[in-house]
Specification:
Chemotaxis Receptor Methyltransferase Cher, domain 1, Rossmann fold, 2 domains, seven-stranded mixed beta sheet, three-stranded antiparallel beta sheet, 11 helices, globular, binds S-adenosylmethionine
Length: about 280
Amino acid sequence: MGNNCKDIKQLLQKIFEERGFDFRQYKTSMLKRRLARRLTTTGSGTYLDYARRLDTNPEEYKKLFDDLTINVSHFFRNPLTFELLHKVVLPEMIEYKQRSMDNTIRIWSAGCAHGEEPYSIAILLIELLGKNLKNYNITIYATDIDTDALENAKNGKYSDDSVVEVKKGLLDRYFHCDGNYRIKEQVKELVDFSYHDLTSEKSIAPINSVFANFDLILCRNVLIYFSRALQDKVFNKFTKNLNKNGYLVLGEAETRSDDMKNNFVCVDSLNKIYQKR
Ligand SMILES: C[S@@+](CC[C@H](N)C(=O)[O-])C[C@H]1O[C@@H](n2cnc3c(N)ncnc32)[C@H](O)[C@@H]1O
């Protein structure tokens, strides 16, 4: 293996076969950048050297995985998007549910990192529903491929940086502040964390959700690492998984597929919020 595209493909194939991590359809530019860092840090001259390094130092897999899955996030990341969710999307969704006499609310946060995004949504739902919360059957399925991040998410403990965008009132109501910020049980109860690989051909929705039928899917700052073809596959999954009138919220850097233009109306182009027809 030298250091060309074929060599990267071989390395990615090895990683997939040996560890089941499937980065084969991620953007090559991103992979090259991130791999270059690992090669330098481990003193590997070529991808072949690095492949040998993975064999002799299996703990290197973990470091590689951490570098390839960037899991930075914070509560209410992109406050304008959350403002729209709070003022427009969630109230309309609740009203629609009331009109259709349906008390289930099913949400999917895809690529949830340490849980900041699904917990932010849970907080907004508790705020909006108030005393009516108990009349609803709410589940926010939160998925990621980073099992360490999922463990942290379940623990629900955060540093100052994670909560900078949380308004004081919400911080007081939904976090225990004891040096760290611990999310309260009332919020935790609404979120179901599990492993789900968006690139997987086998499963189209989080395993715990049993059947898909989501009212809202958030997938922000995840697909930017995927090739266009892979993004389109994932958008297809989302289209299939959303209820009629369900919403899809993408991140700043994500662009919707051409197919989506036929199946969705744009609610807010700046904040990448779309509604299924
Ligand atoms: C930058 S974080 C985004 C967190 C949150 N959605 C936000 O916008 O703040 C990207 C997350 O996507 C996850 N991810 C990367 N590839 C994935 C895949 N194939 N399936 C599911 N999650 C993936 C990473 O592990 C990481 O936690």
